[in-house]
Design goal:
Strand 2 (about 55-60) and strand 3 form a beta hairpin. This protein has four helices and seven strands. The chain is of the alpha+beta class and about 160 residues long. The chain has a seven-stranded mixed beta sheet with strand order 1-2-3-4-5-7-6, with helices on both faces.
Length: about 160
């Protein structure tokens, strides 16, 4: 398993992985078929990340991208010490420590970039996600009530953060 920074040559495989993730889990933002992003839009996003102080890492096996983690650094002076994380791993590769490795790499990047606060949201019924984040030192800070509608039901999320 290789974890590395994404580059524009990865755009097609990355989009394919995101669309597959959309069909595999209800823990991410998009529903199946809802993501209308093009390869060119993904390439632009990747280029924009390189020009920013944020990061997007991918996990790949010998052929495919199987997971990712992004950290978007705070844009204003008062929040530039923090970064918001989004992570996803395909079902076929879950339970193999990829999420842990992705979080470890983001933590290393954060320390190197003077970020002391990592934050995320996780749906309250995502038990595996919550276990992973708590194992990695994240703490629940609050609840976003009725933040999503999934299959006609309102779903809450926890705000979680880790101070480095």
């Amino acid at each position: 398993m290789l974890i590395r920074r994404i580059n524009t040559n990865d755009a097609e495989k990355f989009l394919k992985m995101l669309k597959k993730l959309d069909t595999e889990t209800k823990f991410m933002m998009y529903e199946p078929g809802e993501r209308k992003t093009t390869i060119d839009e993904i390439k632009k996003k990747i280029k924009d990340i390189f020009g920013s102080k944020s990061i997007l890492l991918i996990a790949e096996d010998s052929e495919n991208i199987v997971g990712f983690i992004s950290a978007e650094r705070g844009f204003a002076n008062r929040i530039k010490h923090s970064a918001y994380i989004v992570i996803g791993v395909l079902n076929s590769h879950s339970g193999r420590g990829i999420g842990t490795k992705l979080l470890e790499q983001i933590e290393k990047w954060a320390i190197e970039n003077n970020i002391i606060r990592l934050e995320l949201t996780v749906m309250t019924h995502n038990e595996n996600g919550i276990k992973l984040y708590e194992k990695m030192g994240f703490k629940k800070e609050g609840t976003k009530v009725k933040s999503h509608i999934i299959d006609g039901e309102y779903i809450d999320e926890y705000y979680m953060a880790k101070i480095l």
